Amino acid sequence: MSTSLFEMEPPARPSKDILGAGTAVLAGFALDAEEELLASLKDVVERSPFRNMVTPGGFRMSVAMSNCGPLGWVTDRTGYRYDQIDPEVNRPWPAMPRAFRELATAAAEEAGFPNFVPDACLINRYEPGARLSLHQDKNERDFTQPIVSVSLGLPATFLFGGLERGDKTQRIQVIHGDVLVWGGSARLCYHGIAPLKEGEYPRLGRVRYNLTFRNVG
Ligand code: SIN
Ligand code: FE2
């Protein structure tokens, strides 16, 4: 039996439309802004530190979260909501850094959603083993506005399903600098992140960050 370098199928890598109508996978789209993004991220989480929130069902999330922008996504025993105040420090969330906002607007436009102005940016921090189970983003008012999702640090397997929880999911490998956009007929598609694999990303360490931009309305 011969072995060839090409015998093992590589994991799917980003390209446009791979996830279907209303979606765009913009490989490396965030790389030009990398320095500003990382510096801004550091500023934000100095003021609103990462924390592991609790779901309404009482489970502590494995993903640690923070937010910036006028509205921040929070969960606690009373439910999920957007709040102007960071409950951990009892102050408004840090302003959305310009580099964040400009990247989100540019990525949305590239994906065919012009004039996207995010008013919320959820920041997720995954350490090896952390995962995000399949869910829909549906705490926002205006579903004509897309979701823009930026990956930094360690690679992850992004799960992208359909409009029903039980629909087949596609698995796509996302790496540092990749940006995913979904909106239109895909706006309410189920999605999640498979348990993060062990690894070490130069400069950032054993961690993946994700910035999710939304217009909550
Ligand atoms: C999310 O769905 O809120 C985050 C997805 C990700 O971490 O890429
Ligand atoms: Fe989500």
From TrEMBL:
InterPro entries: Alkb, AlkB-like, AlkB-like_sf, Oxoglu/Fe-dep_dioxygenase_dom. Keywords: Dioxygenase, DNA damage, DNA repair, Iron, Metal-binding, Oxidoreductase. One of its GO terms (molecular function) is broad specificity oxidative DNA demethylase activity. SUPFAM superfamilies: Clavaminate synthase-like. Pfam families: 2OG-FeII_Oxy_2 (PF13532). Its EC number is 1.14.11.33. Residues 117-217 form the Fe2OG dioxygenase domain. GO terms for biological process: DNA repair; oxidative RNA demethylation. Gene3D superfamilies: Alpha-ketoglutarate-dependent dioxygenase AlkB-like. GO terms for cellular component: cytoplasm. It catalyses: a methylated nucleobase within DNA + 2-oxoglutarate + O2 = a nucleobase within DNA + formaldehyde + succinate + CO2. Binds 1 Fe(2+) ion per subunit. It comes from the Bacteria. Its cofactor is Fe(2+). The keyword Mitochondrion does not apply. This is Alpha-ketoglutarate-dependent dioxygenase AlkB.
